[in-house]
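Input chain follows. Return structure tokens only.
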Amino acid sequence: MTTTTNERDLAVARDVGTRIHLALWERRITKAHMAEQIGVSGSTFSKKLRGTVPLTVDELMTIARVLDVDAGDLLMGRARRDSNPKPSDP
């Protein structure tokens, strides 16, 4: 099965939404509060977390500020060290 650009974009958007949702939960911040912070309704914010409505750069930056995280961590996930690193190629 071939994955289209739209399918990949949606998958990435969902991953970002999942990271935001987890950070909200960890910090006990409600989705309603975050929706207010970025100036959208609760239902729109939920759609943004699901990836069906895109986040703007400004919204992502505000979310990162409120969550006190790096926006890059929300986009790409936290860098994790591999427990079994492979030797680098010569």
